[in-house]
Amino acid sequence: MNIVLPQALETRLTPSEAALHLAVGLYTSGAVTLGQAAEAAGQPQGEFMRELGRRRISLHYGVDDFAQDLTTIEKLRPR
Q1: In whole angstroms, what is the distance from residue 20 CA to residue 49 CA?
Q2: CA dihedral 7, 13, 16, 18 (to 10 degrees)
């Protein structure tokens, strides 16, 4: 996919900066998951999470996510 930016933006942003801004916008709007946004930005998930933190953007982590994590922890817990 190619995205055409206005000339003024194209001269100011590198392709990686444009990809990062797009990924952050997609993530904050809820259009993509954290992993998908990190992939779109061309970054490892941990680095993308740090970028969100620098921008003071909270992670989308709700009650359902927490319940899933608890179930996973219970399954992995040694008996």
Answers
A1: 12
A2: -60
CA distance 68 to 50: 23
Q: Average pLDDT, whole number, for the chain?
A: 93
Structure tokens at 53: 């933190």
d(CA 63, CA 6): 41
Q: Is 56 exposed, middle or buried (0-12, 13-18, 19+ CB in 10 A)?
A: exposed
pLDDT in tens, 4-21: 889 998 899 999 999 999
- Amino acid 64: pLDDT: 86
Alpha-carbon span 36 to 19, nearest angstrom: 12
Contact 37, 25 (CB under 8 A): no
